[in-house]
Amino acid sequence: MKARSVGSNFIWSLSAGLIYALAQWAVLVAFARLATMEEVGQFALALAITAPVLLMSRMQLRTLQATDARSAFGFEHYLGLMVLNVVAGVAVCCAIATGMADSLHAGWVIALVALAKGFEAVSEVFYGALQKVERLGLIARSTIAKSALSVVLVPLALWLTHSPIAGAAAMAFAWAIVLFVFDARALQREFPGVRPWSTLWRTPWRKEGARLKALFLLCWVLGLTALLAALRPNLPRYLLEVHAGQAELGMYAALAYFAALGGRVVHSLGQAVSPRLGRYHAAGDARRYGRALAGFTAASAGVGLCAIAGAALLGRWALTLFYGAAYAGNLELFVWLMAAAALEYVCLSLAVGLTAARELKGQVVLLVVSVAVVAVGSAVWVPRVGPVGAAWALGLGWVSELACSVWLTLRVWRRLTAPEPAQALRTIPPGPVDAREPTAGWVPGVVVEDRKDF
């Protein structure tokens, strides 16, 4: 199978990510325009409840699947585990809705948003298979289709019914259409022998239960890291709201949003290079693994330096243009936030390399350290300095993670360059590994030892 260009994959991924972000914003605008403020609050509550639960349910299976260069697990294992996780996640969201929602109306909104996110999570398994063979163009088209359907169906449902229940149901319906029609057909075109839905009931799960358990034991760590990563940027905001009020928190959040733009660039580039990093590591090719990771890290650092320079030179003009003169008076905070973002981008690039090398448990440790540093820094600086202190705490957290990530990366490099006879015999596959092709003699357990939405 012919390898795709990293540049082409990056452009596809970045374009789709930006379109998806705009679609999310458009859906929120539709709720604000066509529903009451109380109903907008119900939708916001649904997002706040379902996002962490379904994020944990995903367990970053897509990343693990895309970098599974040795095909330790088949498509059926990733799909089966994701379906089980999604069913459990939606059930948990419904249970939370029963206990927290102040009305049956709000409970239905939470349940339907959870269902929509469940469909989106299952799509991630299809994306992982396509990303593994570097078909990010197909993934991008699916994301664009999902965005377009959401922008059309959700406002239409709200306009016809003025009900957030209908809006949430329309979102779930749109994402289900993309999953069952577009994603399934794209996978079958790329892998003609794969029948995704029949796989679920034809696979002998009693015999495959041990492998499913092995996959779960491998990837639960990634789910925990996703949860910790989602918690870290919000810790300073919690304390900022307590000590400075909602106005200061709103200003801080508005300025911090610019960091997400650079993060989208780094994330898209990471999706393009992660399959190759996985193949190079699996083949023991230290030279190409190191060169690819170094190039990715340098590009991420370059994005961060541009963010800092842009904030310092054009920050006042940009803040005035997008938010107004009141925000432009916080240029110092803006520069500090971009400095923290620059550290974040480098950490993200190293995390992709560590995941490709299956250095998973170490990432949990460094995230725990980083979250603890952010929490302590926020407790010390936010009451004294305010929003700037929140940016300092976040930056210090990224510094601690960067130090741990560099140490883990060096450990991976030492393993790759160790003079092991078995390692010297391995060769790099000529192109992307077919997701259907098993690897003889591969034991799933060895994988562990070998080693920013709605």
UniProtKB/TrEMBL annotation:
Record flagged with keyword Transmembrane helix: yes
> What membrane topology does this protein have?
Multi-pass membrane protein
Gene Ontology cellular-component terms listed: plasma membrane
**Has the keyword Transmembrane been applied to this entry?**
yes
Q: Where in the cell is it found?
A: Cell membrane
* Keyword set, alphabetical order: Cell membrane, Membrane, Transmembrane, Transmembrane helix
Which InterPro entries does this chain map to? Poly_Biosynth_Transport, Polysacc_synth
Question: Where does the chain cross the membrane?
Answer: 12-34, 40-57, 78-100, 106-126, 138-159, 165-182, 212-231, 251-273, 293-314, 334-357, 364-383, 389-410
| Chief place where the protein resides | membrane
Q: What is this protein called?
A: Capsular polysaccharide biosynthesis protein
Look up and give the organism this protein is from: Corallococcus coralloides (Myxococcus coralloides)
Q: Source gene?
A: capF
